[in-house]
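Lab notebook, page 48
Experiment: co-folding of the full assembly
Goal: obtain a model of how the components sit together before planning crosslinking
Operator: M.T.
Materials (sequences as entered):
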Amino acid sequence: MSKKDISYFIRNESQEKRLLNHAIDYSFDYIDRIVTRNVFPTKEAINNLSIFDEPCPVKRSNGEEILSLLNKYGSPATVAQTGGRYFGFVSGGMLPISLAARWLSDCWDQNALLFISSPIMAKLELIVEDWLKEIFKLPNVTVAGFVSGTSMATFCGLAAARYKILSRQGWDLKEKGLRNAPEIKVILSTQAHSSVIKALTLLGIGKKDIAFVEADNQGRIKSNKITCIDNNTILILQAGNVNSGSFDPFISIIEEAKSKNAWVHVDGAFGLWALASKRFTHLTQGINLADSWSVDAHKTLNTPYDNGIILCKDKEALVSALHAGGDYLMFGNERDNMLYTPDMSRRGRIVELWAAIKYLGKQGIEELVNHLNDMAILFTQELKKHDFHILNEVVFNQVLVACDSDELTKKTLEKIQELRICWCGGTVWNKHIAIRISICSWATDRKDIKDSVNSFVKARLIAIKQLNNK
Ligand SMILES: *Cc1c(COP(=O)(O)O)cnc(C)c1O
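Observation: model returned without errors.
Model output:
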């Protein structure tokens, strides 16, 4: 490199701050528009993304121009998830304090792997681990790992389960691998989330090792169909069906499974937060008797993305599973975050989770969860007034909606998406096409529901016309 090239790397604070200020201006502009803009990007905004098509740059470019490009063409092609009328998937909004805390910590650029790589991240993980135990009422021995999302959290929980079951039989997984290993049985609802099957596959457990158990018409596992649980069994239950929001009947199933020494994992991606509210006690009873739990903060708790949590009652199993043996004993006396996750280097995602819990408090979390449920119930009532059919019992934040025929439901959903007032996805529920509503943003209010219901009605009218003209 010539001397001139190297000069690019000389620190220039005013330039650095100018860039960050631009980012703030663009962000504020985005926030100002979020309520009034279309919820899904226009065709034009999506077509304009072709601006990003270019060969890998050879020369340097200007930071301000890069940011401006991102703002001009990136922002309009986003899905307006933070606005209050986005009901797709189970996505979650974002608490402003959580974003602000993340901004600050982004400037820190911490590596959260060990205490010595970032004392602040080690401290916050330790604190939040305790807080989560209290919020979810989990046993005191529970440890928490902070991962990217529930898919990864479930992978970690099931890895701990696999480790425990094999090591109980004297099988050293690290040494011998899976070939000829003792059999592990998995019991799984036919309504389990696809990420659970993916996690099992990654762990070398295929469908032939899974006993699928039927679910009832709400998507809850049928407890009387669960058989042959023993101490080689991993039983996976669900708090919050991804379509209906229903909860598996935990207490009797888990008591039985634990009496046989099976490992019980709960996928509570969005539903585990029901434990934070007295309103849902009837749904969550016995959930704390399980061995491991996976949950997202980026869904119900409304932190920014990249915030999943694995909670596990058996520290030894979790740490050994993720680190292949007892090597972890070499670490320091303080919390070493990497022990509880599969990664090494990673960002300090704990900051936004810590800020969210500190901001809301247990009361605020309860109110947030109740609010999502209130809005789901309101949505349901309003839709019923307009003769839409509600296909599920609305027990939490999910609502499944249908029109008079599958054909009309499908067309209506298409039109809802085209109108862009709100956004919902579709699914198939008990063999019928359904519009799937997930309320998971603090920002959703009564007006959002009213506007969305109006859009549903308008969409159905257009759909009827179009179908009649065919
Ligand atoms: C979202 C979801 C997952 C996957 O979580 P990610 O954070 O997307 O990895 C798993 N299970 C259920 C029930 C979910 O809703």
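Interpretation: DSSP finds 15 helices and eleven strands in the chain.
Next step: discuss with group before ordering constructs.
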